[in-house]
Prior knowledge:
The chain is of the alpha+beta class. The protein has helices at residues 3-24, 28-33, 42-47, 145-179; strands at residues 61-63, 67-72, 77-82, 87-91, 103-107, 113-115, 119-124, 135-136, 140-143.
Amino acid sequence: MPRAFLVLVLIGFFGLAAQGEEAQGPDADEQDAMPEPAPIDLDEILNNPLSESEYREQKKCVRIRDVDDVEVLDETLVLFHGRRGELWLNQLTSQCYGLEQEMILRFRAYAGTYCRLDPFRGVPYFSRIAITAECRLGDFEPVDEIQVEALRIAVAERQEVSDMAKETRRQERRRTRSSD
């Protein structure tokens, strides 16, 4: 998943949280006590790079024994929960049509690992028949809980907008049919 997307999602998430705090507004005494943060300029950022531990590398594979659970976020994003609290976000190579959050994923994994381009299908909990097309995994990107929560919010908002657009199209079709 491009890092720029995660950064934008996190900025939007924290921007909404900040707006909520501003709406409550601090007391006048608290305002006087809080110093204004100094603006950070580009030179300061470039002269103070992040430590090596702040950068995360994508992985091509994750060992199956290190994965405790797999969670579908949407038709393009799958979250792998590690046994030791690790989280890996997998942006699928393409949209997996029919993949839903409450599905079990059936993988064709090789050599005890989930790897990039491994195929899988989504199956409803109370069925044995796969209802998705064959989907393929992308790279595994380590993420933290804050990033995951921001992604969940973004996915929910995107789904809400999509649902509203579908309903609008349905209503327009009904009006067109009734006017004919």
